[in-house]
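Researcher: Before we compare anything, I want clean individual predictions. No alignment, no superposition, just each chain on its own. First chain goes here; please echo the sequence and then give the structure tokens.
Model: Echoing the first chain and its structure:
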Amino acid sequence: MGPEFHRTVKYLPDIGEPLLFEGVSYTRKSLLEYCTEEASNSLVPAWKREVFDFIALFMNPAGGAIDQLSSGSTGDPKSFLLSREAMLLSAQITLRFFKLQRGERVLLSLPVHYIAGKMMVVRALLGGLDLVLTEPSSRPMQKLSGSIDFAAMVPLQIEESFNHGDPLDRISKLLIGGGELHPATREKLSLMTTPAVYESFGMTETYTHFALKRINGSEPDSDFKLLEGVHIRLDPRACLEVEVPGITDGLLATNDLVEINEQGDGFSWLGRIDNLINSGGVKIIPELLEEQVRDSIGHECLVLPEPDRKLGNRLVLVVEYEGNDPPLELWKDLLRNRLSAYEQPKRVLTVEALPRNNSMKPDRTSSRSLLL
């Protein structure tokens, strides 16, 4: 990681004035004073005090280090210190990519104890953007008025916004990260003309995203495209290594299996090496297989390993299906025509809903209890 910013200064020199916060203009000094005061105000909701506390901490480096729990993408989650300089650099890259202009409204709908929430605040401070706060929830647009120029959300928030008809089209540019999009949700987003929707790829250790993929519009991206200055390569496991100058300390190893495009400026994500299934000596990437199954049968699914004396592990297909009479034989026929012999599931189960975490990402660990 970049070195921690230890200099004792009254304010961060990269941040200009005026600063906008919920429609009000501040000097750096007055915003620091306001946030310091509100952070200790017991009448202010806890989630909002957390925002005030982070702004006060970030704008006053003498206040101490910024501690963050890593994502676990590069191993077990661990605590490390965030560099203010690296946060500003990451924010600048995002501001340039999305062409965000001073005074535009940006929505903070994620908790600031996550790096994604912290970085939205830093982008607003650095870019002179009007930071709009809403209590972190599954429906961030529910009570908001007016338009939003830029917002970042997790898949659960997108799902719930669609389910309740919340006005996502009032957002100009929407960044989605922190989990996998449900195929049906991805399809809905792909058909929207507003907002411009981008899927992000990143981790805490890279100070959020280092690659983006446009998933709607007249020319959607087929791969994740690297942001400026980012370098990638494959390690001997065929996993991604990434370097973001000024942010990572050299190449950062991940457990993400990827395929780098011919130009070297992007990649397609294949899956996680943690989820790799060895069946009869053949290594199977379940995420890739699941994509083929979804395309064939039209339902969300998971491919899970089940102990087998002969194969070591055999493949079990768990399909999300509402109904009492799933067309199992039809599915098997479709898969026989699409998949190779070693990719064929040995067993097929159906459930009304796959277990998911708060980001709507299928929970593979919890799902294994379905096999018992």
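Researcher: Okay. Second chain, same rules.
Model: Second chain and its structure:
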Amino acid sequence: MKLLTGLLLLFATAVSGQTIPNASFETWGLYNTWTLDPQEWFTGNFQVATNVYPDSAAYEGEVAMQVTPFLFFEPIPGLAFCQIYDQPVPETLSFAVKCNIDGVDSVYVRVVYFGTDGPVVATDEWSSSTTIENWQEVTMSLSPPTVALDRYEVHVVSGYGEFFLSGSPHTWISVDAMAFDQELRVPEFNSESSVYPNPSVDLVNIRLPEGAIASQVVVYDALGKEVMQSNNVAFIHVAQLKHGIYFMHLTAPDGSLYVHRMLKI
């Protein structure tokens, strides 16, 4: 089980800055002659139907993003989303929100996780089925699945009602000042052993059960490539490694394998 857990987490996404594209919505781009879209966000806006607009009554800055239902023969839920690749999932997503709910509609902010095989594997979400007249600050806890992810997406959805359709064109949600938790915490996968300090600049100490010395330590980068190996050690030096997340496989004298994620800073 320890080995399986380590292998599942070994192929997690690589590390880079934890940012949300155009999270303040100050940058809008004229993609065609009939509609405005926030840059780096995907919307359903097109020539005969729009559902995403700049909201000049912003929480901060000049504009926020407002999402409404589509107006066809009947209202259909509206969506705006951005995609995030090659970044570890942080602990929280915070944002400011206000909304108008008409009828039996609801609005959502979702973080959707996509596995490397393509399908959605999990979703974290905040929702409201009541009107929020004034800007409200929200912090969502994120719990990504322990599988290899292709990407995750931030979705802003307006107008889910009965039968997955919007009940009213008057429903809308505005969001602004989106931010991920910038502190990347590195959890331990094995309470019986540890590596410390973590995060680390140079020296990493290794603690195994009953004070045992690791018979082998193998360090892998976030893409699964072996970058270091030592035998019969109680600590290793990692100063030569680049900044990022690494996975340390510790083999005890009895053959037990312990896997830890280590952040090199």
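Researcher: What stands out in the second chain?
Model: The chain is about 5% helix and 50% strand. Additionally, The radius of gyration is 23 Å.
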